[in-house]
Design goal:
By secondary structure, this protein is mainly beta. Helices cover 6% and strands 55% of the residues. A six-stranded antiparallel sheet has the order 1-2-3-4-5-6, with no helix packed on it. A hairpin with a 2-residue loop joins β1 (2-7) and β2 (10-22). The radius of gyration is 14 Å and the shape is globular.
């Protein structure tokens, strides 16, 4: 599943979520929130999660961090980072 969200005067934010069956539930295999930037070949990643290894861009430190909260792997990092 993917969704784009318009941002005035910028490229849209691109959110992507990939799930796969795991028993009677689903597992989050990949989750990204990224945005293309002029002058760069690769988009900037705000959230990059693959197989439960989560990194997000910390706006305070200006670095990519792992969650400093009790990460719940059955919820999206996007939802948890908004708390």
């Amino acid at each position: 599943m993917s969704e784009d969200m318009g941002v005035p005067n910028h490229f849209p934010l691109e959110y992507r979520l990939c799930l796969e069956p795991e028993g009677v539930h689903f597992s989050i295999v990949e989750e990204t929130l990224r945005q293309k930037n002029p002058g760069y070949s690769e988009p900037f990643h705000y959230i990059d999660s693959r197989h439960r290894k989560v990194r997000y861009y910390n706006t305070e430190t200006k670095h990519f961090d792992t969650p400093d909260w009790d990460y719940i792997p059955t919820e999206t990092a996007f939802r948890e980072s908004r708390n």
